Description:
The protein is mainly beta. It has one helix at 296-300; strands at residues 32-33, 60-67, 72-79, 84-92, 95-102, 114-119, 124-132, 141-148, 158-159, 165-170, 205-211, 216-222, 228-236, 239-246, 258-264, 268-276, 282-290, 305-308. It folds into 2 domains: 32-148, Jelly Rolls; 158-308, Jelly Rolls, CATH 2.60.120. The protein has a 5-stranded mixed sheet, with no helix packed on it. Strands 9-11-16-13-14 form a 5-stranded mixed sheet, with no helix packed on it. A 5-stranded mixed sheet has the order 10-17-12-15-18, with no helix packed on it.
Amino acid sequence: MIGTRTFLALGVAAIAIASPAMAQRGRTAAPATITFGQSVEGTLAAASTSTNCTPDGPEVRSYRFQGQAGQRVQITQSADDFDSMVEIGKMDGCTFVPMGSNDDGAGAEDGLNSRLVARLPETGTYVIRARSLGDTGVGKFNLTLTALPALPPPPAPITLALGQKVEGELTANDAVIEEAVEPMWGEGFDSEMGTSIIESSRPYHLYSFSGTAGQEVLLSLDSEEFDAFLEAGVDSPLGFAVMSSNDDGGGEDDGLNSRLRVKFKTTGTILIRVSPLSSDTGHYTLIAADAPPETAADAATDGQEGHAH
Length: 309
């Protein structure tokens, strides 16, 4: 398991790829400049074993762009002939310092193509590296850089009542979960050498539910269009604080749908967050019902039950 936006399009590159893997923090010459609205083309050849500050090896192509602090950018790399891999980072002299990467996109429609969304921490020059996963792929690719609008503010929670069935739709225009995605650094990567700036791109809706002490509620989230993920939590000074969550339910018929059992220790209100496990969008159904008697299987399943204080 796990929009319509105003875009400034940038860059398309067609490239051939082959060769041994390069270090994630490799030495390289200054990347070529790419600007919004520009298209670029290149060709890859055999890899070099030189460790000097030389131009990129044929298994990677680098492009640089100017970004502003707080700016959100999307980078996509697609290829028909290999599993693509895209990275974003900065240069430290001749050394590329990685700040995020992506292999297979963030949604079902991406397949083996790469797509990442990053929020730039400071104004300056950033570098995109287009590669294949494992640096062994051969073929052409397209690379696109897009400037994204600012995120919408967090939504106000929608009241959910016991027995109520809500039908909703997550879209690319919804607020997204603001959490950093762990990068795909490769073997030997030192986490101190780079900090991930990649966003999850997961849209979400927020609901509130009020219960009484001792009450047990079963929350059900179903969707045929994305891998449903259900969380129960509370509001905190740092934002949504998760108490419990569920991905693929607990029953044979649940599939990729979510089931979450919540027990109120005291009378109060919880928040319920509905989201996919990726950047996928689509329709869903959310239901809050009295929880059935707990079975031994329920009691033995971690992550299925939360307690509202």
